[in-house]
Amino acid sequence: MRRVWSAVIVGVVVWVGVVAADPSLTIYNQNFAVVRDTIPLDLRQGVNRLKFTETTAHLEPDSVILRDPTGKRALQILEQNYRADPISQALLLSLYEGKTIEFQIGVGENAKIVKGKIVRSGYVPHQTGLRRYGSQYYQRQMAYARGASGQPIIEVNGKLRFQLPGTPLFPALGDDTILKPTLQWVIETDHAGKFDAELCYVTGGMSWEADYNVVSPEKSDILDIVGWVTMDNQSGKVFKNAKIKLMAGDVSKIQPGAQYGGGLLRSRMADKAMMPPVSEKAFDEYHLYTLARRTTLRDRETKQVEFVRASGVTSQRLYVYDGAKINWNRYRGWSADSIRRNREYGTVCNPKVWVMREFKNTKENHLGIALPRGRVRFYRRDADGQLEFTGENIIDHTPRDEKVRVYTGNAFDIIGERRQTNYKIDTARCWLDESFEITVRNHKAENVEVRVVEHLYRWINWEITEKSHEFTKTDARTAEFRIQIPPDGIETVIYTVHYTW
């Protein structure tokens, strides 16, 4: 639907108002969006003055692009003004500073009218300037415009009041007031005619995020996954019948200074004949998700759309014991030599065994799409059929064919204990030997595998000279022992590491 014009006369200048057709927008998961509007224009040859009042309240003025997408018409923007100070009581008070207006005290039959002169309005303008130019600008602006307290000053019957005596009754709107954020252009074109112009700009006040609900049966690691995208509009504008895209990835954007649905899971087979509500594709170095149908996104509205549904996802539950507990604040700034000489470094025990959930994001595992960063909530179905919450965490942007590993909490029935059993250092010959004993106790009724992770943190040159179990070197300073512990059993890992420098 297209509506074209309504003329507004300001003095001797005619500003022609334009209204956009159905918009489209791309929301980024970094709290901003790109808005694209199609504006039907009817320009005369020469200079035209246009007013557009359907922008957001967080538009970035220097990002605005107005052009003829066909390239057939030359448009030169001689002047662009962005007004983001919609009319309010405080603003009107500031416009009438130094003048006398009426104030209504009370309501109904008991109401009475008094006259007061607005000495100071108490209006706080230039919020964008306060954020951009910092505290010094803020202090000077406060002193100049409102005084330190920011209170209004009204003179009634020769006496000053530091508050409004009643409800202000304004004679009329000022000529320079606006009702909502407005773009004004002075445009010159080479020939007259009607055409559809494209308006594009960057705005703040919008965001989106992904949420995943994961359900498994009581005694199985086969998962059902439902993923949602949650869009939040705090931009000050309603987007009616909008085409919406969502951009996932770490887009470079200079930042200014200064949950959700679920529902019952269905079989993936039932959705084969249905159009997916969100389609995904790689775009540049990021991933773009497009909603299949247009929708209305209202101001201050949170909207959710399902974008992934998968059943029969094979997963694995992992138990990880990382027994060293280091107070990094205590050792901040320590040199490598100081760490080597400190016998107590890294010997405090962490008794908790982590529970991890891992699955492959592959097509063979009923997934195989780029998963945007978001919160993953895990549920397990009890014997009575009810779902019980078992943990949550955040996953980062995950390409297809990669593993997803999520920490969901600490094991209740598996306890770890780690202690230093030997420490010898010879600074003259530049070597150090250190021994540890790691004990893991399993109080479960079934066998478990625990991955014991040890960090070789004393120095970069190391060799494990004695060990009770085989290990895997996972990186330059990490060794992992995988141990099997029977029901109500205990397993102990013993090793000695030899450092040289």
Let me know the number of strands: 31
Mean pLDDT: 84
Rg value: 33 Å
The separation of the N and C termini measures 76 Å
Uncertain spans: 1-13, 257-275
How big a fraction of the residues is strand?
over 45%
Helix count equals 3
| Main β sheet profile | 13 strands, mixed
> Could you say which overall geometry the principal axes of the C-alpha atoms support?
elongated
Number of domains: 3
SSE-based structural type: mainly beta
The helix content is under 10%
Describe the structure.
This protein has 3 domains: 6-85 and 178-203, Immunoglobulin-like; 89-169, no CATH class; 313-500, no CATH class. The chain has 3 helices and 31 strands. The protein is mainly β. Strand 15 (206-216) and strand 16 (222-233) form a beta hairpin. 6% of the residues lie in helices and 52% in strands. It has helices spanning 89-95, 127-145, 336-341, and strands at residues 6-10, 13-18, 24-28, 32-43, 46-52, 65-67, 75-83, 100-105, 112-120, 153-156, 159-161, 167-169, 182-189, 193-204, 206-216, 222-233, 239-248, 278-283, 286-291, 295-297, 301-322, 352-360, 374-381, 387-395, 403-426, 431-442, 448-455, 462-467, 471-475, 478-485, 490-500. It starts with 5 loop residues before the first strand and ends with a strand. The strands form 4 sheets. Strands 15, 16, 21, 22, 23, 24, 25, 26, 27, 28, 29, 30 and 31 form a 13-stranded mixed β-sheet that branches. Strands 3, 4, 6, 14, 17, 18, 19 and 20 form an 8-stranded mixed β-sheet that branches. It has a 5-stranded mixed β-sheet with strand order 1-2-5-13-7, with no helix packed on it.
